[in-house]
Amino acid sequence: MQNENSFEQFLSQKDEEAWSAALATLLRSIHEVDRNATQIWFAFYPLSLWQALAHAEDRERLAQQLLLQGDYDLKHQIDRSHAFLYGHRFWPQVKKAIEQHADSFGQSSSISLADQILTVARRVANDLKKDESLLIGITAVAFMTLQQTGLAAFTAAPGTIHIDRKHANKSPEKILRDRAKDDSQGLLGFLRTVNKQFTITHDENDDKAKYKLNDGQDLAWGAAEDRSRDWVAIDPRRSEGPIPVECRSASCGTCWVGVLGGAEKLADVAAREGKKIKEFGYIDTAEPKPLIRLACQAQAGGAVSVVIPPWNGQFGKYLRSLKNTEERAPGAQPAGGRIEQTDAVN
Ligand code: FES
Description:
15 helices, 5-stranded mixed sheet, globular, alpha+beta, binds FE2/S2 (inorganic) cluster
């Protein structure tokens, strides 16, 4: 790309594997309050999908082919996409530190991606007199945001925080305690075997963003009962409550969510959910209780905190076919203009 500064050039050489390795190195140093949130954010904004769209001959056509709906472009949400991370409250300082890092990048070019993230996080933590573990996740997110948006757009964003003062003042310990809480089932509730109800939180920065469901119901089922707001006005994909849904049978991929807290209280991923979530491209794991779930399939047996991505699509098969093409013919351009030859969409 023309006029890239040297930091952008450094980042543009980082692929999904390089980022996975960096995150694996950083993960143990990220505070518990943001460990799941950081992994969820990286699942919500996959580098390989952004690269496929950036290299496509016809980006709009590819987006249609992959059934992308909602706002999948980080450029529109540079300051906002990470509001569910605790580290979001330090965004103005992290953003500024990264802009300074990009300006003086010459001296850092031989340092690994993970070490650069740690260095910037440490600098901000020292300035703010905070524990550096609280800054590492949001700094990694900022690096990836810059990679996907470019330095000019990153710098042009205002650098504002998108949570109110009350929530910004919550401590990490309080947030972790809230996530661990389960609903009281009332006096003698321990004797209850039916009619247990649990609270699902779908935005930790909004005290009213909660709904109830019955024991064993899937996350999408409970959401449909919530008519507290005009959800469609907030997001046209939300035609049945706060969780976007279409098929309710693990066929469309509309209802994916990240699980910030309580993943262990959801039923294990069944064979169909596991197969389809990989085909959609959201996550590729054999873990029984992963951090990304299909809300229409994940049955709750306790209180859970989720975060809803602003978009959905079906891109897993397409990205795998691109990767296979690249492995067979290294250096070949991704086949962004020849999507009809792939089996991206059933
Ligand atoms: S609503 Fe279609 S996959 Fe869940």
